[in-house]
UniProtKB/TrEMBL annotation:
It comes from Candidatus Methanofastidiosum methylothiophilum. Its cofactor is Zn(2+). Exchanges the guanine residue with 7-cyano-7-deazaguanine (preQ0) at position 15 in the dihydrouridine loop (D-loop) of archaeal tRNAs. The keyword RNA-binding does not apply. InterPro entries: ArchSynthase1/Queuine_TRR, ArcTGT_C1_sf, PUA, PUA-like_sf, PUA_sf, TGT-like_sf, TGT_C1, TGT_C2. The keyword rRNA processing does not apply. It catalyses: guanosine(15) in tRNA + 7-cyano-7-carbaguanine = 7-cyano-7-carbaguanosine(15) in tRNA + guanine. GO terms for cellular component: cytoplasm. This is tRNA-guanine(15) transglycosylase. The gene is tgtA_2.
Length: 581
């Protein structure tokens, strides 16, 4: 079971529950080679690993390991109590052309040794294979996928298709209809090794557009910290890495902005335990086995540190800014990021309408963020009395100067005021409401408004002429939080089903008392809503039940079986909207 806790772009902080175990995503699965363990699985907790991945085919083909795994189970064999995922041998198939095992056989073995997430024997297609070969491989993969779901086992449903986007889309659609726990994107390691990042972006976003958003996505073979932030922004949740060891074997030192050769370094630009204790020269002088362990350790620390930074960026709403700094570490990454302009509709659908942090301009690529075009579209038709110029958005209504994202941009051109009219409080709140809820809403919503300012002299509370509160203007983003009285007006002004979440009768009494709305109780909604918008909660008769903040996109709400759809702010039978001034 997968739930979303926070989001930015297509990136999300999620909770993946496997039986009684749970992990937080995005995260890394360190690869454990059972024949040559460099860092003990039990020590992976020290780095932040809640899940590891190993190869069931290697274990199956090594008699001693096979006997131990069957006798003790995979968790005792590896001495790791967290989630263990296993690959099926597809990597070996890609490397050597074929392996001596059947799909059913490797699935049964994974079940017998007690893995938490298994993998069926998919057919990896090299990126440069012809369409006919890729299609043939995909048909075999889909046939084996349908065979695999008959096993009582949490499984990866790996999406294949080479670089042929029509096949990737088909694979994603087919996998969405099968009960897999995770959907890895396979066959992409050669693209990453050859720095073909633009093709990787095309593949990821083609898959995401056609895959159920309720599925966590595992980007197979992606473990370099340089690539993680972009991959998360595009919607990948899980990564596996043997890079921490493989790079260390070649005396390479991982950083979020690229790879360094240890024997060319004088300083270690990191504060992990290894880099605090050793100088570059001392690390080089260590015995080979010890040096491999230490450098592998650093590489893991660097990778998990980057993942923590990514999660904090999602929480703050600054993931785009982080990615735009990282892509400048390699020209191929910069070119790959520019591909997002071709997927504006997809990114805009899932990107939150407001964020915790200000909007930072990092370069011309900042104009590719979905918020730029979305905001320009939303201000069309607004009838302002005064306009100003903005770096991102061009001419915009001055009434919105403190409203997200206009007032939360940290780099603007010098403002040039246009028009001589002085703006009143009534002008300001009308335009903000029109921007937030649609042209024409503000005049009707605040037809008899009385504006109250905060101690800092900013507009804060809106009452009606009888002294009942209609809405609060949030200091954080300059958008309205409607109270029940204001929500009643909005319901009459805005035609059904716009700005509405429609819930079933079972949930209605609880929502009236202020309970949150969970996805399983939503029966319909305005398809044009975006995460973090303020919405009206109604029943199928359009009776108002409450108001709150939408936590997921409409497509996510339809796809998820559990999780919060709306954080209810006011229920009509438990609210403070009658507060008087």
């Amino acid at each position: 079971m997968f739930e979303i806790k926070s989001k930015d772009g297509l990136g999300r902080i999620g909770k993946l529950t496997i039986g009684k175990k749970s992990i937080e995503t995005p995260t890394l699965m360190p690869v454990i080679n059972p024949n040559k363990i460099v860092i003990a699985p039990k020590d992976m907790y020290d780095y932040g690993a809640e899940i590891i991945i190993t190869n069931s085919y290697i274990i199956y083909r090594t008699n001693k390991l096979k006997e131990i795994a069957l006798e003790k189970g995979i968790h005792k064999m590896l001495d790791f109590n967290g989630v263990i995922e296993t690959d099926s041998g597809s990597f070996q198939m890609a490397a050597y052309g074929d392996i001596e095992i059947e799909n059913k056989e490797i699935l049964q073995f994974q079940k017998d040794i007690g893995v938490d997430i298994g993998t069926f024997l998919d057919i990896p297609t090299h990126p440069d294979e012809s369409h006919n070969k890729a299609q043939s491989d995909l048909e075999t993969t889909l046939e084996r996928a349908r065979e695999a779901v008959n096993f009582d086992l949490n499984l990866n449903g790996t999406i294949q298709g080479g670089t042929h986007l029509d096949l990737r889309r088909k694979s994603a659609e087919e996998m969405s209809n099968l009960p897999f726990t995770v959907n890895p994107i396979g066959g992409v390691v050669p693209l990453m090794m050859e720095y073909r990042f633009s093709e990787l972006v095309d593949i990821i976003l083609s898959v995401k557009a056609n895959l159920s958003p309720a599925r966590p996505v595992h980007l197979f073979g992606a473990g370099h910290p340089m690539l993680l932030s972009l991959s998360v922004l595009l919607g990948c949740d899980l990564f596996d890495s043997a890079a921490y060891v493989l790079y260390a074997q070649d005396l390479r030192y991982l950083t979020p902005y690229g790879t360094k050769k240890l024997n060319e370094m004088k300083y270690l630009p990191c504060t992990c335990p290894v880099c605090r204790k050793y100088t570059a020269q001392e690390l080089i002088n260590e015995k080979e086995e010890k040096r491999l362990e230490l450098l592998s350790s650093h590489n893991l620390y660097a990778t998990f540190e980057e993942l923590k930074l990514i999660k904090e960026s999602i929480h703050e709403g600054t993931l785009f800014e982080l990615v735009e700094t990282r892509i400048r570490s390699h020209p191929r990454l910069l070119l790959a990021y520019r591909k997002i302009k071709d997927y504006y509709t997809l990114l805009e659908e899932f990107d939150p309408i407001t964020k915790r942090s200000a909007l930072f301009y990092t370069g011309e690529e900042s104009n590719l963020r979905p918020i730029v075009k979305r905001t320009k579209d939303r201000i069309k038709g607004l009838n302002s009395k005064k306009y100003e110029d903005h770096l991102f958005f061009g001419k915009f209504p001055k009434e919105l100067e403190f409203t997200y994202p206009f007032g939360q941009c940290e780099m603007e051109e010098e403002r040039r005021e246009k028009g001589d009219s002085e703006l009143t409080d009534e002008d300001t709140i009308r335009i903000i409401a029109d921007y937030q809820f649609g042209t024409g809403v503000g005049e009707k919503l605040f037809k008899d408004a009385v504006v109250k300012r905060s101690k800092t002299k900013m507009i804060r509370y809106i009452y009606n002429e009888n002294g009942l509160m209609l809405a609060t203007l949030r200091a954080r983003d300059g958008l309205f939080t409607p109270n029940i009285e204001g929500s009643k007006r909005l319901k009459e002004i805005i035609p059904f089903p716009r700005y509405r979440i429609i819930v079933d009768e079972e949930a209605a009494p609880f929502i009236k008392e202020g309970a949150n709305v969970f996805t399983k109780f939503v029966i319909d909604m305005d398809k044009n809503l975006r995460p973090y918008e303020e919405v009206l909660i109604v029943n199928s008769k359009d009776d108002l039940l409450g108001t709150g903040t939408l936590m997921l996109s409409p497509r996510e709400i339809r796809a998820f079986e559990r999780g919060m759809a709306v954080r209810t702010r006011w229920g009509i039978e438990k609210n403070n909207s009658t507060q008087e001034y």
